[in-house]
Design brief:
The protein has one domain (28-210). The chain has five helices and nine strands; from the N terminus they run H-H-E-E-E-H-E-H-E-E-E-E-E-H. It has helices at residues 3-9, 22-72, 105-108, 126-129, 201-210; strands at 91-92, 95-96, 100-102, 121-124, 142-145, 153-158, 160-164, 182-184, 195-199. It binds calcium ion (3 copies).
Amino acid sequence: MSHAQKESSSPPLSPKRGGFTLIELAVVLFLVSLLLGGLLLPLAAQQDAKMNGETRRSLEEIREALMGYAAMQAKPFLPCPDADGDGKENRTPVGCAQLEGDLPWRDLGLGQQDAWGRRFRYRVSAAFADSQGFQLATTGDLRICGNTDCTLIIADKLPLVVFSAGKNGAFEEKNADANDKDFSLRDASIDFDDLLVWIPSAVLISRMLVAGRLP
Ligand SMILES: [Ca+2]
Ligand SMILES: [Ca+2]
Ligand SMILES: [Ca+2]
């Protein structure tokens, strides 16, 4: 077969196309705008879910670290809150300098911030922060409320609560009030986004039994 014959047997080129018509262009632009509009909103929601998940994981780590801290003491007790921003507890000879403040993240060997770059808050019951150690029968005095007037109680007699202000950066309801012993898990307000963890007395005490720190 000659070179010329080879050339002639190759398939004919497809007919040459012109550019997009205006109508085609308009359809494409319309589809692109639909896609972008449909993608941007879920992306924002995905980002929020990611930050919430990250903060929840940090709170779970804090929970474990607090139990570890208590188990490392000869007589188990919880750290006091940090009152001056250095990440270390503020303790006086008679107890905690204050019962609610920043998480003493440095004492716990943890990061100090939630996913939005704000410090975690921490509240402890005085009886559990006593450096003489807590006992089998020790109970806390903190409670978690499920509604604004706390007629719905979600958890009671807690040794500690740790919380994040959430995406909006503000503590809501009873989480904003450092003078009472109540905390809010949720409320009717659509802006409520605080994230909380706590440890029930019985869980903390059973951990100390397993660790051989009690009775
Ligand atoms: Ca401090
Ligand atoms: Ca909030
Ligand atoms: Ca409160």
